[in-house]
Amino acid sequence: MERGRRDRNxxxxxxxxxxxxxxxxxxxxxxxxxxxxxxxxxDVAAGTLFRYASSKGELLLMIYNERFAAALDEGIxxxxxxxxxxxxxxxxxxxxxxxxxxxxxxxxAYQRELIFGxxxxxxxxxxxxxxxxxQTAIVDVLEREASRQGLDPSPTAAxxxxxxxxxxxxxxxxxxAASAPTDSADDLRRQLRQIVDxxxxxxxxxxxxx
Length: 210
Description:
79% of the residues lie in helices and 2% in strands. By secondary structure, the protein is mainly α. 35% of the residues are buried. Residues 11-71 form the HTH tetR-type domain.
């Protein structure tokens, strides 16, 4: 019974920290919020906060990982039903793009934490798993399109095209953070179309023999 109470208390503190950080980041932006503000709003000691996340960057990863995981699941379902391959790709990466549109600085900070964060941190590892899931979903879209066009898709070609598509998405996030022109969405769609077209003519594919 004592352990059950302790576990519930820990879960309650984690939830309060999560909500406090999420609300403060949304209200003021990641860079403007301090861990002291988060601990005060969550009504926990600063030392307690750091038992759940070792830094403000880890808190950002914790929050965005949860948001992206749920949205990615929905995006994959939409992608499977899409009739156009570029629409399918955009459905998969929509969680990233939506974050860049609404909170460009925080989206860029999330990218930075994923790339340069401490290797052993739990939430960075979870974020990198989400990146891998996203890339896998992109590859699945490309391979489905190749099969639809009567090709036996090359795994290597799909993997490389998937990486290129993912890189284009992250450049779009950087463009939002830099207050780039509003046609960046159209640019991304055209980039994805070029990537798909190049992927489909890759000589490593084989034509299905009926």
